[in-house]
Design brief:
Number of helices: 12
Distance between the termini: 56 Å
Order of helices and strands: HHHHHHHHHHHH
Helix content: over 70%
Oligomer: single chain
Number of strands: 0
Structural class: mainly alpha
């Protein structure tokens, strides 16, 4: 199981590197707006936090908005998926261990999320900027609420006493459908970790099973979703590359040295700022578009 997952992760890593690399080479004379150093620091910080369990999408959206790295907000969903694809695959590669979980359950949920992300990315690339701002704002607020529920332990309570390591029959069908939807929502910035954890608990699976499902789903869906974003040019090239490089460095440091840090206070601060950023995006979406000559 572990060997097969690692092979899949390596294959996805190579695929994403090829797809993104080919596009970057094609547009090497104009990689777009953004600052290499600032974007690299954003990647370092957010994937550092992701490795520690806080997540990377919402903090990245927050920091990109604060530092004004993107020329257009419509590039945000694609940038999040393209930029963090390699770091999340490296995370999955580093932290994948033997967990007692049904192969059918694990792969069914991962494939569902992956297919959902591909379908979702085709839809998101067609959205106008005001729609992206609106849905990104709500995605951030929903993510912050779910992060808050996880911090208070309310999500963990759902899984108390659960011992199952496999889904069968109707429960497996429900899990596949829900993870498909969660994969699609990832393409507009709704983090998968917390809602996937809640789904796993509510279907009666052991809390431990949530980790390979969450990790594998994100590692599978992000490179696949990125194919459409790259194809449509709906991502910030320079920013994404810098975040990828900084993110790999950040996650390696987090994995090796500080995985035992108590981040409760920092997490609550991030949750508050994410809510503020989400409201800001929603307010932006309500402003009239500025005419461009």
């Amino acid at each position: 199981m572990v060997t097969l997952l690692l092979v899949i992760y390596v294959g996805l890593m190579l695929m994403h590197t090829f797809v993104m690399g080919r596009d970057l080479v094609k547009h090497k004379s104009d990689l777009g707006k953004g600052n290499w150093f600032v974007s690299g620091i954003i990647g370092f910080v957010t994937d550092f936090l992701d490795t520690l369990g806080i997540g990377s999408f919402a903090p990245t959206a927050m920091l990109l908005d604060f530092t004004k790295q993107l020329g257009h907000d419509r590039l945000l969903p694609g940038t999040l998926n393209v930029a963090h694809a390699i770091p999340v695959l490296v995370e999955a590669f580093i932290f994948t261990t033997v967990v007692e979980v049904s192969p059918v359950t694990l792969f069914s949920l991962i494939i569902a999320a992956t297919v959902g992300s591909f379908v979702g990315s085709k839809f998101v690339t067609k959205l106008p900027e005001k729609k992206v701002q609106f849905w990104m704002g709500w995605a951030l607020i929903i993510t912050a609420v779910l992060m808050g529920l996880r911090q208070t332990g309310m999500l963990n309570m759902l899984g108390e006493g659960n011992t199952a390591t496999a889904l069968t029959g109707a429960k497996l069908v429900i899990g596949v459908v829900v993870n498909f939807i969660l994969g699609a929502l990832m393409t507009i910035g709704v983090g998968l970790y917390a809602p996937c954890m809640a789904m796993v608990y509510m279907l009666g699976l052991s809390p431990l099973v949530a980790f390979p499902v969450m990790m594998g789903s994100c590692a599978g869906l992000m490179p696949v979703a990125s194919i459409n974003f790259v194809k449509e040019g709906d991502y910030a090239r320079k920013v994404s590359l810098a975040i990828t490089i900084g993110g790999i460095i950040g996650l390696i440091i987090a994995a090796k040295f500080v995985t035992g840090l108590n981040l409760d206070i920092l997490t609550w601060i991030i949750i508050v700022v994410i809510v503020y950023t989400g409201i800001t995006y929603i307010l932006k979406s309500r402003k009239p578009a500025v005419a461009v000559d």
